[in-house]
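Predict both folds.
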Amino acid sequence: MNTCYVYLRVSTDEQAKEGFSLDNQKRACLEFARNKNYHVKEVFLEEGRSARTTDRPEFQRLLKAIEEKPTDTLVVYKIDRFARNVNDFTRIYNDLKNKDIRLLSVTEGDLMESNSLIPNIFASVAQWESEVNGQRTKAAMLQKFNNGWWPGWAPIGYMNVKRGDKRVVVPDPKVAPLVIEAFKLYSTGEYSFLELCREMFRKGLTGKSNDKMMSVSTMQHTLSNTFYYGLMKWGKPKQLEKMGKHKPLIKKALFDQCQFIAAKHRNFLVRERKYNYLLRGHTFCLIHNRRLTAEAHPVKSKKPKVVSYYHCTMPGGCKGTYLEAELLERRIANLFKRYEFNPEFIEMVRTKVKEYFESGRKNHNSERSGILNRRKAIEKKRNRLEDLLVDGTITRDVFKRQHAKFQVQIANLDEQLMELEEKHKIDVTLIDEVLALTRNIYQTYIDAPDYLKRHYLRFFFEGIYIKDKRIAKVVETPLFSTLRRQNKVIIRSNWLPG
């Protein structure tokens, strides 16, 4: 008995069409093989793939099987299931012919009986259909976008569902709260992208297609995606923008705050690495005037561990700068013990902060009172409208229309209240950090997360130079040096020579 392989394919758009379903194709192909007295060695099922290229997992597995375990015949349901590109079809067709493997189509018959003209005509028609369908699909997706609905796969935190005769994007009840929390945590400024990935992984947020921690690039893309506050962007190279009808997960104010934090991090942080060393870019070799780099080294012991070292980038090495990372970072932290702001400067900052708070409270309370008064007035109108409905004074249509308008106005005012509170919270956090720095420079530096430590290093020092495994020279920034010359910053007496 002759043997055969069976190859079946259905694209994403065709999966819902009964005539092209894999089950129907499989049933027809197996019956066709049985009637031809073929023994089916294996069936290759390709689901959700286009035939415009040969870069399909099951198709590649089929070609490998043909090489390693030859067969007499390859059965397909139709040429366009097999290939929709004339060049690919011709190449594979000739390869099968050279191997004496027949290509049979359930709907088009034996494609090896005639010369290659007829099969190529079929393949040309399949390619033409593919291109036409592609244009139709693009047009349909563009129309869907123009109607306010997202035409592609849902981003993380959303899912694609079918509503009536169309597919829409809705929040994923399990993942959406985690995405919202990621935005809120990042907006505090206390997390780098890598730290946020780790924190959210502990809370249950993973990559879209696996159970692993979300990559830094995916987190960065997620937090910069305007889709989450409602703005859809579609198409290349000319990108279209439109506010979508999907439910936003966050407010634009929160999104903008995250972009502000990201911009600050880009200005002051080194790029994310597996080992994100604190002093990169701040320390130098005094002998060779080169930046110190850092790298991790495994240490053999009963409990294997990794120890990191800073060193000069001079070819051939520089023993005088080869320092354990933890030791050098501790020594540089101790530099901040030398400095303190003088009492007059601290008092001046405190006075300015007090003025800022008093002014801010007045503005905050005034804005909040205005919003609450407008909300209360709208609620009165809404309550009056409800009474008119009960009395039968107005129709249901009038009630629905007016009531919906009032509800939208109330929701907008609630959003303004939330934005006002968020802004106040951010301002208070920033002021608290400033006050802490003036009171105790060293302790504030120690308590700060790494990204903020880098801010402080850039504020105080232009460069810290190492020689003979010691801090040999410290170059202050012009701003900090000016503050010190004006006695706004003083060096503690126990750090003075002698």
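Second protein follows, with its predicted structure tokens after the sequence.
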Amino acid sequence: MPLPSMMLGYTGSGGSSLDSVLAVLERGQQADYQGRRAGLYFVTNSNVRSTCRDWQFASTKERLVERRVEVVVTNEFPVGASSIMGLLCGAEQVSPTEMGSFAPGAVAEHLTSWGAEFQRPQTKCTEWLNAGATATCGSVVEPYANANKFLSARFFEHYTAGCSVLESFYQSVASPLQQLFLGDPLARPYAPPVRVSLLGVNRLSEEPFRFRAMAATQLRGVSWRYTFLLNGRVVEAASEISSYQVNPVDLADGFHTLQCVAWVDHSVRFYGLDTKVFVVNRVGRALSISSDIKPLGAGVHGVQVVVDGADVPNRVQLISGAEVLDEGRYDSELLLRFQESWLGDGVCRLQVVGVYADGMEVASEPLVLTVFNSFNE
């Protein structure tokens, strides 16, 4: 089986604008935990694009009603309806902008041969996203009227059970290789919120310390599993123990992160995440980035390393995530350079890392920046 995947958007001919794609992602984030119990429409007609799938509608409606989710099976499009949460139909040509407004997290699809073959006629699946939906899908090659190759109505059973868009897609298309899935894969409007707090100190020196996680949800009588990541690497997986002990002797001086992902042990894994940052000061080494970022022209900038401890590193690096942007032998006047286009648009985090004579690598606290229009350079 292929690994589940989605595209956030398609901006080529017949697709969406960049602003439309960004709006889809914003709607996906707004949708979390906000799923409506009404506004699902299954629209039928006599065309084979509809009849190959509409036999699924009655049984799906019955199961959703048991969850107190209202479904309308109709032969008319919900023109002018407000806050549509989902829409399935079968038609060569549709007008999504006439349907009314879509709620955050809405999923819509119209089962036609070339919904995502953008060089062919027929309404493109991207029209649903441009009209306000959060996710859709369309065929990339002729699938014929085979319901197994299209979105099953049971998508909404998985979706309303709390699965994400991506999880729901891949549980409801039996043969997914001819479908292009578009939108926010992580939107999960029907999942219950999970709150996680990771508690502990901000500084460590010599003694080990046990950080503790507290998790809560509105579901009752649940059991939990906890996964801990230290500096982005899993150090404890799927444990029933809600704490993790950090021994500073095993760490370099400087900035570190401990993360906890807690999830409900349930048929659907409802999860939450918290991050605790702390500093180790065991041998007195520390670095920081000067707040004075120097423009060097053409989207290039320079930053200086400030040594806050007694020892001086041999070499220093400027990093973003795991990528080394620049490095050099340490000098108080050294400028480490980066170009905006290397980082891409949006929020980015820069750190300096000092490499000392004994091999210890000391990381600074991140400098958080927002890059705008790097593609225009």
